[in-house]
Design brief:
single chain; 254 residues; alpha/beta; Alpha/beta knot; 2 domains; 7-stranded parallel sheet; 8 helices; 39% helix; 13% strand; disordered N terminus
Length: 254
């Protein structure tokens, strides 16, 4: 499978070659403390990740909505979420809603719609904004292309600046009397729909190369090991039992 362009994380050189044996050694060292179940969950969590489907949040006001979207994005195997003007939220985060899901995501923050659109367009993404009028169903768009789903804030939707830089607008069909979804619900539905269609178009559960998956496995194992160590520092004892469930947030996230 060909590698698709993606936005670079500051300080990251995604093109730097890493020997697969080095990655194997690194993972084995990190996994010494993990249970077999934990190792299997890490491998399963990497196997179906998608970099070519992402979410852009444009000035969301309610941190609960933002956290719910993080949780949906991670649950559907996305790797990146882009947040424009995070200061618009009245509180930084609602960890009891996200349940620590953001710890498995790369959350990128941007000052303006133009900045995030420029970066994503340069990486080959199309930007599609959720709208309730003058929009087409997601089925209309070619979701085999790297795609960013854009969601505006709860009060007025996407900003004029964002609408000026997107490539299209999509709507979600509704059959009842309600004329809109809550933004976090809309995001979950759209991500699910786009993910399914992208899988079908690619004929695969992931758009990552083998090498990218190997690097991601080491990355996830590193994150997991750090949280385990931090939990032990906070509790003053070796952590066992429930902490082997990697779905649990680390202490202090709720």
């Amino acid at each position: 499978m060909t590698e698709e362009p993606r936005p670079e994380t500051p300080g990251e050189d995604a093109t730097t070659p890493v020997d697969s044996e080095d990655l194997d050694v690194a993972f084995a060292a990190l996994a010494e403390r993990f249970t077999p179940e934990r190792i299997e969950r890490l491998r399963a969590g990497v196997a179906a990740r998608m970099r070519g489907l992402t979410v852009v949040l444009d000035g969301l006001y309610d941190p609960g909505n933002r956290s719910a979207i993080y949780r949906s994005a991670e649950a559907y195997g996305l790797l990146d979420v882009h947040v424009v003007r995070p200061e618009a939220a009245w509180k930084e985060h609602a960890r009891s809603v996200s349940r620590g899901a953001e710890k498995w995501l790369d959350v990128h923050t941007w000052r303006s719609a133009g900045d995030v659109a420029g970066a994503l367009h340069a990486a080959g993404f199309q930007l599609l904004v959720a709208d309730v009028s003058n929009a087409r169903p997601l089925d209309h768009f070619d979701l085999s292309r790297p795609t960013a789903l854009v969601f505006g804030n709860e009060r007025s939707g996407a900003s004029a600046a964002m609408r000026a830089v997107v490539d299209g607008a999509f709507t979600l069909p509704m059959r009842g009397f309600a004329d809109s979804f809550n933004v976090s619900v809309a995001a979950a539905i759209a991500i699910s729909h786009a993910r399914l269609h992208r899988e079908r178009a690619l004929g695969a559960l992931t758009d990552l190369t083998v090498g990218e998956r190997d690097r991601l496995l080491v990355d996830f194992a590193t994150r997991s090991s750090r949280w385990l160590h931090r939990a032990e520092l906070e509790t003053g004892r070796r952590v066992e039992g429930p902490w082997n469930d990697i779905s649990l947030p680390r202490p202090g996230t709720e």
